[in-house]
Amino acid sequence: MSQANAEDFWRGTAAYNAGDWDAALADVDPEVVFDLTRAAPDGQTYRGHEGVRDFWRMLREVFGDYRVDPQEVFECGDRLFTRIRISGTGQASGAVTEDVLYQVLTIHQGKVMRADFFRERGQALEAVGLSE
Known about the structure:
This protein is an alpha+beta fold.
């Protein structure tokens, strides 16, 4: 795996924040799996580009200005570990929300095949074969 995968992640995240979802999905396999079951009590699994777009639409409907800001990114074999700060303002309530999540991206031939989201750093590190 090359450092290019981390650079692709940074670029894709910037595209997502700018609302350019086509560019954000450029390095994502069309059959990708986004698994949020470990990150939220009602977390779901989204499949394919359309599933990811559905997830992103839901986020924008709830938090119009929803942002993802990477805080830490490193490569570990065929995986990319990321710590992200998420933030947004509730469309209905106006309440500001901010949280930290961890992602483990599985990459094959330059494409994200899977994104697993975690609430706890230790779980995400374990998913890449490391410990705290």
